[in-house]
Structures are given as structure tokens and as C-alpha cells.
């Protein structure tokens, strides 16, 4: 009986540790905040496709990291995946492990170990081969502002958890967080560890892209563990590269709009699209707001960025672009060549262009409308002081986006894009003079990116980061 009781208690403890914990009050969040897994910053990033997951976590010592994965909660006959370690900017070691061979629509249990560190047991469920739900957020801004507010890490991390809790209460089968940059406010190790604190993130994969605030430090590069990074780039940001992954029937292109190297961006998109010829949908995720025109001093910057990116989006028939940076919620009309070709509607069938969307910040919502809309291009805007998130429902035939304030009863906006063929209404019109101009813009952008990286080197050295000039010059 004692043995049987021990087995039953073990099953209960392991099973309950794999259940998402919702922070209903600060007492519960205190326990989460002080846990070993929060201190380690355990995170599960996307893999190349649904058969993979990439894990990362911090330890004080260097040991061989292992992630054990099983279809049962006791991790009986678990497969063990070993990884690598590298030094983090603040002296810790970052562990990277890739798990492969996962099956669709299957629940897995896992734990991470390295030296004396052993995580709790968590679970995640892979999506079906042809459909999934994701939550898109941006400008989460986990902030280590301890001089002015000693609780800033705690509070901003809790803000992310509350948004995730709200989203999962609506759609419990969300299994992907898409974050469009500025995960951290200063790019610090402490901020990225706090970014991982929510136990809900242990149940879903995460796909991030680089924001301008992530670029203030160097830790994003070692914190993340991302698939299919474009390492062939001539010039990239010092803290990371563009990368792609496939989920369901969607190719996600995760790009760094801080980097002006247009030749590299065009080559990356061409390579990613060529490697995935059978996907029906293409979604690009970047940080900078390209079209809404909300903030005067950023409009000249965004004009240059869209001068580079709009032709790439048009050429490769991108269906949806998810953005951040301005902290104002806007959704464009259907755009082609930076012009409206069809109005935004609740349902759009085979649109002959791209919809660009910007979401509000999770922890830093804007207080007022600073400029006003670019009304010829924007189809919908929503001014709010509340954090917002967006639920994407993706299947073979359509992508639906529903947008919510945290704590609200109903969505304040929603739209569906439907495609009846692989290309839908996309039709790229190539003109030799325009192509020559676009190529010239991309070359100038690449040259500018090198000079911009020189400026970043000076800033990073001034802030006390140990960076190599020539590595920083080309972003290696």
C-alpha cells in the first residue's frame, strides 16, 4: 500500500506541475517569481516546423544541457536531447537544446536538466498538420527599471502573464506566441529571464523578432534559440538574423527591420520562399510600424523602411504583415505598391495585395493620438490605454484575426482573409525601371547598415558591453 500510495502521489505531483498556472493574485505570482524555472529563464522557442521545438535556459555553471521528452507524465522511456552552452553577457551560461521527431496533435511532457538544475515537468500539445491558433502581441517591454521602480521586472512580467491568461481563457488550444519585437526594454539578461516567467509560456512555443529596444543590449542573441537563421547575410544586426519557420500551412518570415541591409533581406525572403514551395500562406513579422503615420518623428524613418520592404512584400505575395513599434492599433486596407487596392473588410476573398497590422503594447500603451491616421491607407484604428492581444486562427483556407483588450468581453475588431488558390489574388507586376530602383535602394541600404553598426558599436561600448568592432561591423 505504501508503494502504491507513493506512485499515486508522484503521478499527481507530476501531472499538476504540467498544468498551466494562472496568476489570480500576487501571492501566486510571488511563488512563480521565486521559482527555479523563472530564475533559469526556461523558454520553448519554435522549431523549423511542428516536429521540432528549441529550448533555452540559463545556469551559473557550464554543463551538458539535456531536455527529456515523453508522451507520459512520468517521463518513462523519455527521449533525451543534448545541446550546447555559451557564455551570456552577464556571466551566466545559456543552454540551447533542439528537440526533434515530434508528431502532430500529440501531447508531450518535458523537463530540462543541466548540472544541478532540474526544471519542473511541463507539457505542450503539438497542433494539427493543417490548422492552429496563435496569439500575436508586440512591445511587451519587460523592464528592469530598478532605480525608479524596484518592482518593474515583477510587474511587467505579470502584465505579460495576465495577457496570456486572458487569451487562453478564450481559446485554450493556443499553442504559439508571436512577438513582434521589444520583448525587453534594454536588452538585458534579467529582462529576458523575466520574459519567461509565466508558466503559460512553458505550454506554448514562442517566436520573437528583434525590436529597437532589444538592440540596446546584446543578450537577445544568446537568449534566443531560433531555427533557419539567415547566416549568409553580408550585414545583419549584431544580436541576431532573420529566420523562418512553418506551422500548419503558413510560412512565417521573422525579420529585423533595425537592419537596413536590403540585399540581405531580399535574399533571405527568396531563400525561405524557395525552401517552402508548397505552403499556401506567407506571414511576415517585423517590429517597425510602416504605414499608420501615428508618430511624427518616426514617419521619416518608417518611410525609408517601407521603401525597402514594400517591394519585397509585393514581389513574394505576402498575405499578412504583423508589426509593432508605434503602440497604436491599426489595420491597413489591402495594399499593393504602397497604395490601397481594396478596402479592409470583415472578410476578404483572394485580396490582390497585403494587409499590414500593428498592435498596441502590452506594458506601455500610448496615452494619446500624436499625429493621426494615414487615412488613405488605414482601414481601421483603435485608440486604447489597455494592453491588447490578437488571436490568429489559421487553416488551409483562411486566416482570421480577432483583437481584444485584456479583460474585455468582446473583440473590438476582427477580419478574415480567405484564399481559394495558393496565390490568391496576388499578382506581381515587374517593371524594369522599378526593379532597378529597388535594387539600388537595397544596395544603399546595405552600405548604410554597415555605418549604422559602427554607431551601434560605439553605443554598446559606451554602455559597458564587451563587443568586437569587426564582429559588430557586419553583425556577426
Describe the overall structure.
With 476 residues, the protein is of the alpha+beta class. The protein has 2 domains: 2-125, Purple acid phosphatase-like, N-terminal (Immunoglobulin-like); 132-418, Metallo-dependent phosphatases (Purple Acid Phosphatase, chain A, domain 2, 4-Layer Sandwich). The chain contains 10 helices and 25 strands. Helix 7 (262-275) packs across helix 9.
Task: Give a quick set of tags describing it.
476 residues, alpha+beta, Immunoglobulin-like, Purple Acid Phosphatase, chain A, domain 2, seven-stranded mixed β-sheet, 10 helices, globular, disordered N terminus
Structure summary:
The protein has 476 residues and is an alpha+beta fold.
Amino acid at each position: 500500500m505504501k508503494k502504491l500510495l507513493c506512485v499515486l502521489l508522484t503521478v499527481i505531483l507530476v501531472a499538476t506541475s504540467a498544468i498551466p498556472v494562472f496568476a489570480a493574485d500576487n501571492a501566486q505570482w510571488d511563488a512563480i517569481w521565486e521559482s527555479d524555472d523563472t530564475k533559469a529563464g526556461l523558454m520553448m522557442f519554435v522549431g523549423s516546423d511542428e516536429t521540432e521545438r528549441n529550448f533555452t535556459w540559463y545556469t551559473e555553471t557550464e554543463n551538458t544541457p539535456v531536455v527529456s521528452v515523453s508522451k507520459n507524465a512520468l517521463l518513462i522511456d523519455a527521449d533525451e536531447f543534448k545541446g550546447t552552452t555559451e557564455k551570456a553577457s552577464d556571466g551566466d551560461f545559456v543552454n540551447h537544446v533542439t528537440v526533434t521527431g515530434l508528431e502532430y496533435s500529440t501531447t508531450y511532457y518535458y523537463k530540462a536538466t543541466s548540472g544541478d538544475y532540474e526544471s519542473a515537468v511541463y507539457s505542450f500539445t503539438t497542433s494539427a498538420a493543417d490548422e492552429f491558433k496563435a496569439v500575436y502581441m508586440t512591445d511587451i517591454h519587460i523592464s528592469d527599471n530598478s532605480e525608479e521602480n524596484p518592482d518593474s521586472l515583477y510587474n511587467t512580467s505579470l502584465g505579460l502573464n495576465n495577457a496570456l491568461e486572458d487569451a487562453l481563457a478564450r481559446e485554450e488550444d493556443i499553442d504559439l506566441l508571436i512577438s513582434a519585437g521589444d520583448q525587453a526594454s534594454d536588452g538585458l539578461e534579467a529582462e529576458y529571464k523575466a520574459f519567461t516567467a509565466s508558466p503559460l509560456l512553458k505550454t506554448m512555443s514562442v517566436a520573437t523578432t528583434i525590436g529597437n529596444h532589444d538592440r540596446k543590449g546584446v543578450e537577445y542573441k544568446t537568449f534566443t534559440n531560433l531555427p533557419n537563421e539567415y547566416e549568409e547575410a553580408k550585414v545583419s544586426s549584431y544580436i541576431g538574423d532573420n529566420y523562418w519557420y512553418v506551422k500548419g500551412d503558413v510560412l512565417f518570415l521573422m525579420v529585423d527591420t533595425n537592419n537596413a541591409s536590403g540585399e540581405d533581406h531580399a535574399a533571405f525572403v527568396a531563400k525561405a520562399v524557395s525552401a517552402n514551395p508548397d505552403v499556401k500562406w506567407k506571414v511576415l513579422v517585423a517590429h517597425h510600424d510602416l504605414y499608420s503615420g501615428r508618430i511624427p518623428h518616426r514617419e521619416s524613418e518608417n518611410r525609408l523602411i517601407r521603401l525597402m520592404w514594400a517591394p519585397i512584400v509585393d514581389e513574394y505575395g505576402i498575405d499578412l504583415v504583423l508589426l509593432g513599434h508605434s503602440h497604436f492599433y491599426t489595420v491597413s486596407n489591402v495594399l499593393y505598391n504602397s497604395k490601397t487596392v481594396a478596402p479592409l473588410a470583415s472578410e476578404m476573398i483572394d485580396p490582390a495585395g497585403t494587409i499590414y497590422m500593428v498592435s498596441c503594447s502590452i506594458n506601455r500603451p500610448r496615452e494619446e493620438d500624436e499625429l493621426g491616421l494615414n487615412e488613405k491607407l488605414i482601414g481601421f484604428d483603435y485608440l486604447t490605454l489597455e494592453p491588447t492581444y490578437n488571436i490568429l486562427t489559421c487553416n488551409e483556407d483562411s486566416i482570421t484575426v480577432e483583437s481584444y483588450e485584456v479583460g474585455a468581453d468582446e473583440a473590438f475588431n476582427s477580419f478574415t482573409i480567405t484564399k481559394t488558390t495558393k496565390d490568391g489574388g496576388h499578382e506581381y507586376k515587374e517593371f524594369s525601371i522599378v526593379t532597378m530602383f529597388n535594387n539600388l535602394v537595397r544596395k544603399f541600404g546595405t552600405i548604410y547598415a554597415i555605418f549604422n553598426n559602427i554607431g551601434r558599436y560605439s553605443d554598446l561600448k559606451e554602455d559597458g558591453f564587451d563587443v568586437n568592432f569587426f564582429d559588430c561591423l557586419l553583425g556577426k
